[in-house]
Amino acid sequence: MSSTVAPSTSAAAGGPSLPQERRLVTEVPGPRSRALLERKSRAVASGVGVAVPIAVVAAGGGVVVDADGNSLIDLGSGIAVTSVGNAHPGVVDAVQQQVQAFTHTCFTIAAYDGYVEVAEALNRLTPGDHEKRTALFNSGAEAVENAVKIARKHTGRQAIVVFDHAYHGRTNLTMALTAKNQPYKNGFGPFAPEVYRVPMSYPFRDGGLSGAEAAKRAISQIEKQVGAENTAAVLIEPIQGEGGFVVPAPGFLSALSEWATANGVVFIADEVQTGFARTGAMFASEHEGVVPDVVTTAKGMAGGMPLSAVTGRAEIMDSAHVGGLGGTYGGNPVACAAALAAIHAFEHDGLVERAAEIGDVLLGRLRTAQATDPRIGDVRGRGAMVAVELVDPATGEADAALTGRVVRYAYEHGVIALTAGTYGNVLRFLPPLAIGDDLLHDGLDVVLEGLATA
Ligand SMILES: *Cc1c(COP(=O)(O)O)cnc(C)c1O
User: Fold this and answer.
1) N or C: which end of the chain has fewer CB within 10 A?
2) Which atom of ligand 1 is nearest to the CA of 242?
3) Phi, psi at residue 266, to the nearest 5°?
């Protein structure tokens, strides 16, 4: 089926040399974007939604360019993926070189350097200086699934403890691990067994329990309802992502991690969203001085190429028998080349510091706005992972409708902003760490205008 206004299919040059500006030349979505979305509705399963109705032709630095020539400010990074910047020149170079050398062997058939080098980098960069091992996969969900497999094999136990508001993916096991029914689980059961959910530390909504008190509540539930002796792993996002950027009260993570160690339970930090400089530390566990037994990573690691990892204590990781871990594409050589270039940028381009600076701008401006706008119930986050929770000032109830209107206003005015949260009332900011200050301020201006007029 052909359409009269076909989106441009010629490859446009992206990367940081794209003009770093917000520029609208049509309404958003414009005619070419609308034409693509029309084709999408007839070709793509409707369960695969699109939040921002544009057809992308190029991206780089802090902007995304659509087929109509609009340049939108990117405050989402494709959900914390293009942290080093979209089409980062180092990543593009590495990918091009690798593609010309070879595209695939299946690492479990024949080994290559890039896979081992990514494993070495993860073993070096993740928290703790104990001996580690890494296994590579394709998606965050796949990494989490494998972390669970490994923890069960190591402990000989089955129960996995997860938290309210948790998000760990969309496969069968990770749907079970994920808290939120709509849209992630509704009608897709039955779900995997031996998954137990306990309360999270959520300072804005748990009456201000201290980290120690919230940990005591969670641990008591584990001990009473599951039994430490049955528990293979405690699996937690150090800062929850899809759940609404919930930052647990200080001391919560360390108390859980200490309890896990004392009880022979594997403490797994799901750093798929928080990892790789995003929060102003290489890994978010570092903010609390927590050294997880196992860490899962993905999103930001490979500059947009699909790659994920499980990294953990050697004795835990090596408990799986030969052939027990793997997959056809896991640790694909092109994705590994991209990851090595991205990791080089994280380490050598000051991106950890840049994330912290971005956090100062975001938190500062959003807290100023909060002082005069009672609809901003909470401002929270770390580094370039910041959110506001919007509420009805009269009742304190979550205001998901307002949140949706702000996101719509934002893209109609040239800014990509995302929502999150169990109650759908969280506006989240995940700009690429390659964004400049001018663009960041301009993007925030638009979002705050949207809030003022919504
Ligand atoms: C996104 C995410 C996942 C799932 O990753 P996919 O690559 O989408 O499978 C798992 N855990 C966390 C914390 C995430 O943010």
Assistant:
1) N
2) 15
3) -75, 125
pLDDT digits (tens, 9 = 90+) for 2-59: 444 444 445 568 999 999 999 999 999 999 999 999 999 999 999 999 999 999 999 9
CA distance 248 to 242: 14
Which atom of ligand 1 sits closest to the CA of residue 139?
Answer: 7
Token duo for residue 258:
């200490």
Nearest CA to ligand 1 atom 5: 140
Q: Is the CB of 238 under 6 A from ligand 1?
A: no
Please tell me if the CB atom of residue 241 comes closer than 6 angstroms to any atom of ligand 1: yes
The residues, any chain, with a CB within 8 Å of residue 95's CB and separated by 6 or more, are: 305, 334, 337, 338, 341
With a 6 Å cutoff on the Cβ, whether 140 touches ligand 1 is yes
Q: Are the beta carbons of 298 and 324 closer than 8 angstroms? A: no
The secondary structure element, H or E, covering residue 173 is: helix 172-177
- What is the rounded end-to-end Cα distance, in angstroms, of the chain? 38
DSSP per-residue codes, 260-290: HHHTT-EEEEE-TTTTTTTTSSSSGGGGGT-
Nearest CA to ligand 1 atom 15: 273
Q: How confident is the model at residue 194 (pLDDT cuts 50, 70, 90)?
A: very high
Q: With a 6 A CB cut-off, is 139 part of the ligand 1 pocket? A: yes
Ligand 1 atom with least separation from CA of 306: 7
**What is the β-pairing status of strands 376-382 and 385-390?**
antiparallel
CA of 205 from ligand 1 middle (Å) equals 24
pLDDT, tens only, 261-320 = 999 999 999 999 999 999 999 999 999 999 999 999 999 999 999 999 999 999 999 999
